Amino acid sequence: MPETVRCTWCSRKIIDAQPTGRRKKYCSHACRQRAYERRRLMSGTGVLQLEEDSVVVRRAELESLQDRLYVLRSAVEVLQAAVDDNANSAELVSVAREVVAATGDLDRLWISP
Fold first, then answer.
1. What are the sequence ranges of the domains in the chain?
2. Which of 11, 20, 22, 107 is deepest in the core (most CB within 10 A)?
């Protein structure tokens, strides 16, 4: 079973169509550019100095993450209410599916060392 490869910058899953040669480190040119900019800033040649464990995120991405986490938290609250109200199994299954759907692609947020 092939190992799941994730983008070094954004942690999205990488689909590498070429089975030979150097493996991809980034899922897109944009991620490659962001990584280059971070390395440049870390090396002292840029204006901003960042610590090695710093994570740079665009405001739009942060707001999107906050929105998705709010949806997930709301879905979990609905599930908790259904459990507290002793909902039948069909209702619990329906609400549990909503929780799973609310997680979406949150797994792409894993940061690899």
1. 1-56, 58-104
2. 11
